[in-house]
Amino acid sequence: MSAAPPEMQSLIETSGLGKVFGKVQALDDLSMSVPTGAVGLLGPNGAGKTTLLKLLLGLLIPSSGSARIVGQNPKTRRGRLTIREHVGYMPEGDCLLPNTTGVELISMLGRLTGLTAEDAMTRTHEVLDYCQLEEARYRPVTGFSTGMKQRLKLAQALVHDPQVLLLDEPTNGLDPKGRRQMLELVADLAQNHDKNVLLCTHLLPDVERTCEHVIVLQQGKVKLADSVAALTKADGARYRLIVPRSTEAFIQALPAAGVILESQQDNRCTILLPDESQSADVLFRVAAQCGASLESVELAKSSLEDVFLSAIQADGDTSTEEVTP
Amino acid sequence: MKASTHAEVYRPFSGQLRKHPMRPLTLAWSGIRLGLRKKLPAFLLFAPAVITALVGAIRVYLMYSFSEMLKEDGGLTGVQMTAAMQEVLGDVATNVVLFVKTSAYFALLAMTWFGAGMIADDRRMGANLLYFSRPLTRGGYLLGKLIGLMFFGLLTLGIPTFVIVSTAVFASPDWSFLRFESEVIWKTAFFGCTWILIVSTIVLALSSLVNRKTLALTLVFGTIIVVHGAADVAAELLEKSELKLLSLPYNFEVFADWLFDQHLSLGADPTLSLTALGIFAGGGMLLLWRNVRKMEVVG
Questions:
Q1: Is there a single domain that holds both residue A225 and residue A239?
Q2: Which chain B positions have a beta carbon within 8 Å of A1's beta carbon?
């Protein structure tokens, strides 16, 4: 789209953003800065992810605080309309009008965004092709499968070629193949077409596969915000070991060598070298001294799941059952 | 660069968005296309309007033709027959008004059918999220829905009226209808526009209250027909003709009689009926605005 949005320092900024529905505090004093690129908004159901997206589009009025997206404030009418020109929104629910065909729906929405009739029709066919709905384009959407409906919703978000995509649970209800296709489309858009994607999901692997940054929301608050690479980077001082012989002697000898035992299960254990520059040679020396052998020495890489769990359990809150690792 | 699962690449858009894209017309056209998708209801609802238009046009044409033939025939018999025919059929203007008033009720049926689902279905499907995540204002949304529904009103009331009035204009000798009764044309147009606008507002307002077309249909017919009947009965039983003001058809009837200088029914007060129609329209618009606002700002 040639009409570029204003210069963006960061994609989204919120300051003390809050939203209350009756007695439920959906978002609580949310202050964060979302970088450009592909960002995963992760959290259990009810964490406030959809509420945040709707606040950013001006579909909800905040109870407190403010937000900016593409440099605009959704509270003002002008800001809201500008945001909606530059943002493509894929809602979570099944919001497609029955009795319309894919082509009719997408071209109509394209024209509503501001495309000419000709451009809208051209773009409609392009995005439907891209979303693999070529042969279904003239069929009523009522007969679409869940996967096709999700891809059609992605297509309508893309029709005006927005710079920012707000995707609310795009893999919801999809089978493994459909999910893989959807994630590849999202990853392609973010990595190869410079789209800024805010992927809202409760599925950790979706974020791991597509996003560079992750923000973890829980009970309306940010629990964690960093790049996926930083969160899952190899921890140089932590190792996972398998000690098949003389395990107990090996473990007893570790403290004397300045090594901390983090966990042990049978002949498997995780240890921490307090000094990150310390070489793993010390482990072999200890093993040799106590007659143990090391079958495996592996650098421990914290997965996003570990990071997520530790982040949301830091407050003693264990309500993680709705997040699917 | 291709994504591995599909053959098509993503093509960036190199054009520009229009500054004034006339979004309400896009929305209206979409509503019209959706409404006309089912052929049988469209046929059943448009057929009576077409028949009324044809019957009205033929009757008006014949009235002028017979009148001319009998006048040419001359003599007392011709003049007497003309007078007798006028006594039975009324004058042309009265006939035009009669057919316009009849068409208005067919228009009500059609507009109720096509309009009941216009907002209710959007609410049921959550399509408002798709609309309002685009630069569409709630005024634009409202206007789009109103234009869409008024189009159906135009088809079922405007076109029959146009056909009948045109027949009167062209069939009248020496353009006499246009020269001497032209106020009927403007009054008919005014009546038709008022009817379409008020009915559209009320139908859409009631449609915005529920999230199913069937419920909206029930609500519209309940509000208009049941209230009409109940008000009529209550007015008779309690001997209070003011109760009839609750009825939309009654107020339109009084409005039409007043506008076309027809004989007013007993107890009818055009001022009160016009006020009632104003309240219906204003109330409908307020309700509509409130509900559309809730659809844009969903929480």
A1: no
A2: 12-13, 15-17
State the Cα–Cα distance between residues B280 and B231, nearest whole angstrom: 15
Q: Is A239 in the same domain as A265? A: yes
Nearest chain A alpha carbon to B37 = A99
Q: State the CATH number of the domain containing residue A91.
A: 3.40.50.300
Q: Do A181 and B5 touch (CB under 8 A)?
A: yes
Q: Is the residue at A86 inside a domain?
A: yes
> Are both A169 and A262 inside the same structural domain?
no
Q: How many CB pairs under 8 A join A and B?
A: 148
User: Does A93 fall in a domain?
Assistant: yes
pLDDT of res. B212: 92
Q: What is the pLDDT of residue B110?
A: 94
In a shared domain, residues A215 and A247: no
**Residue A6 domain-assigned?**
no
User: What is the residue-averaged pLDDT of chain A?
Assistant: 86
Confidence of residue A245 (pLDDT cuts 50, 70, 90): confident
The CATH code of the domain that includes A278 is: 3.30.70.100
Residues of chain A contacting B133 with CB distance shorter than 8 Å: 57, 59, 84, 87, 89, 91
Q: How far is CA A175 from the centre of its chain?
A: 19
Structure tokens at B24: 């309400």
What pLDDT does residue A30 have? 92
Query: Same domain for A153 and A253?
Result: no
Which is it for strands A234-242 and A268-272: parallel, antiparallel or unpaired? Answer: antiparallel
Do both A222 and A261 map to the same domain? Answer: no
The rounded distance, in Å, linking the Cα atoms of A217 and A220 is 6
**pLDDT at residue B15, as a whole number:** 86
- Band (pLDDT 50/70/90 cuts) for residue A3 is very low
Contact A81 B10 (CB under 8 A): no
pLDDT per residue over B87-140, tens digit each? Answer: 656 677 888 888 888 889 999 999 999 999 999 999 999 899 999 999 999 999
Q: Where are the alpha helices (DSSP H) in chain A?
A: 49-57, 77-86, 102-113, 117-130, 146-158, 176-192, 204-210, 228-231, 247-253, 281-289, 304-313
Q: Which residue has the tokens 């007043």?
A: B258
Of A94, A112, A192, the CB nearest to B131: A112
Whether A4 is covered by a domain: the verdict is: no
> b/e per residue, B171-188, with b = 16+ CB within 10 A?
bbeeeebeeebeebbebb
pLDDT band at A61 (very low <50, low <70, confident <90, very high): very high
Q: How far apart are the first and last CA of chain B?
A: 41
Q: Does the distance separating the beta carbons of B15 and A98 come in below 8 Å? A: no
A25 and A44 inside one domain: yes
Q: Number of structural domains, chain A? A: 2
Give per-10-residue mean pLDDT for chain B (299 aa). Answer: 59 86 93 90 92 90 76 61 62 83 91 94 91 93 96 93 91 86 90 95 95 93 90 89 90 91 80 95 96 84
Which residues form the domain of A225?
12-231
Q: Do B21 and A115 touch (CB under 8 A)?
A: yes
Do residues A64 and A144 share a domain?
yes
How many C-beta atoms surround the C-beta of residue B262 within 10 A? 16
Taking the complete model, does pTM exceed 0.90, yes or no?
Answer: no
